[in-house]
Structures are given as structure tokens and as C-alpha cells.
Amino acid sequence: MKPTKTGRIFVAGVLVVAGCAAPGGTTVPQTTQVNYYPQCYQSVALLRQQDQQFQQVMAVNTLAGAAGGAALGALASGGDWRGALIGAAAGALVAASTTYASARMQQEADAERRQLLIANDMSHDYGEMQRAVVAARQADYCYGMAYGQLAANVRSGVVSKPEAAQRFAEIDQGEHEVAAILGEYGKKSIASVQQYQAAFNQEAQQMNTTPSELLADAGAPPPPSGGRAPAPRPTTRQVSQNTRQLAQNYTKLNQQVSEINQEQSTIERTAAVRRDDMQALGVQVQG
């Protein structure tokens, strides 16, 4: 069947609003001028690739929500594509949270199989986040080794201070670029956790319990938060292996998000200390 003009506008509009509402984004430009330490920047490029891959995962979820919202908008407006696009925009805004939970509920009515699907999705995202942290640490370690050697060479007079300034500028730029990419990745990881939080809360509701009680029943520690820990329950009920896996993966995912934020803060603090130390050696530091 030949697509109509309205249909083409509809699809294009859904793609546009989905793209606009996608959480996070690879918005960090390359700021590192690579001259002396290309081996270190390889890990930065890998981290950037991990960020882009995770963005694609989140964009798919957002697009699914936009499409669902558009379908509802079209029905409510009697097939009018303008109403469909309004629905698409609304759907895109909540796609990273409630839409995922609703989609899994509609896809699989059996609670055991549904919880296994969600647990597997969490495991996939956890692996993606873990690879990003590894790439960031590899870059930080490489730049750290380069900095240590550079500082030693400046003290011994092997490297002149003008050359040291150029070399350190590359190290400093690389570290700040890693931290900036991690910051963007952190936004997407939080959005990922939010969609799973909605799904986890939904599963707890289906089991006539609360999320915290479900975590306790599954033997999983509660996810990191600033609030007070709930009072211990006198007894716990038996849960299935799939439910236990769901709770454990949910906790691991939250912990991984905290690790990303901590890694970013650590790299930023280390970069600041290195700038001060290099200035103390009499090397001009840019910025």
C-alpha cells in the first residue's frame, strides 16, 4: 500500500519528538588534541563509543513510547495526525519509565516469564554500564602513568617546561573529556534505572507487596538512597528464582549508576590535583 502524505508526516513527527525527548545524548565534543599520547585516547574513544551505544538503547525505548503515545493520540482524535503527534510528544516524555513497564506487562502476562525478561534487560544494561566504567578507568590509568612519567622528567630536566606544558595540556584535556563523557553517560544510566524502577514497582504491586519488602524477601540489599533504611521485617516470604534475580539485578544496576557518578568525581578531583602539582613544578597550565 502506498504511504499517504499524512502517514509520512506522522512517522516523521514521531521520529522527531522521540529524538528530542531521548534522555542524555553524546553531546561532548572531542576537546583533546592528540599528539603525544594516542594510546591513552584510544580508551577515550572507546568510552565515547559505549556512550553512543547506550544512547541508541535509550532512543529505542523512547521511540517505542512515542509510537505508543501517537497511536493513542490518533485514536482519540479520530485519525487526525496533529492529535497523533501531540500523543507522540506525551509518550516520548514518559517513555524511559512507565512505558517500558507497561510494554512488558502487555507483552508477557505470565509473571514468572515477565520478571525473567525484565531481569535480563537489567543485566544487559548493567553490562553496558560496566564496560563504560572499565573504559574510563583504562583512560584514567593511562593518563595517570603518562603524568607520572612527565612529572619525573620535568624534575630531572629531561623534558623542558615548554614541552611539558604541551604534554600536560593533552593529559589534562583527555581527563576532562573522560569526565564529561561520563557525565553524559550518567544521565542515560539514571534514565535507565528510572524505567526499571517503574517496572520493579509494578511487579511488587502485582505481588501485593512494596518494593522494599520485595527486595527484603529476595535477599537483596536496598538500592543506594539518602533516606533512612526501612525497619527490618520479622519474617520474609519465599520468592521464586526469577523474582530473586529481578531484585538482585535491580540492586546491581543502582549500584552501577552510583559507581559511574563516583568515577566521574574521582577523575575530576585527580585532574585538579595534577594541575596544581604541575604548576608547582613551574610548568604553565592552560585554562
Largest sheet: none
Number of helices: 7
**Average predicted confidence as pLDDT:** 81
Question: How many strand segments?
Answer: 0
Describe it:
The chain is an all-alpha fold and 287 residues long. The chain has one domain. It contains 7 helices and no strands. It has helices at residues 5-21, 38-76, 81-107, 111-156, 161-206, 211-217, 241-280. The longest helix has 46 residues, at 111-156. It starts with a helix and ends in a 7-residue tail after the last helix.
Q: What's the SSE blueprint?
A:
Blueprint: H1 5-21, H2 38-76, H3 81-107, H4 111-156, H5 161-206, H6 211-217, H7 241-280
Helix pairs in contact: 1-2, 1-3, 2-3, 2-4, 2-5, 3-5, 4-5, 4-7, 5-7
Summarize the structure.
With 287 residues, the chain is mostly helical.
Key traits:
287 residues, mainly alpha, disordered N terminus
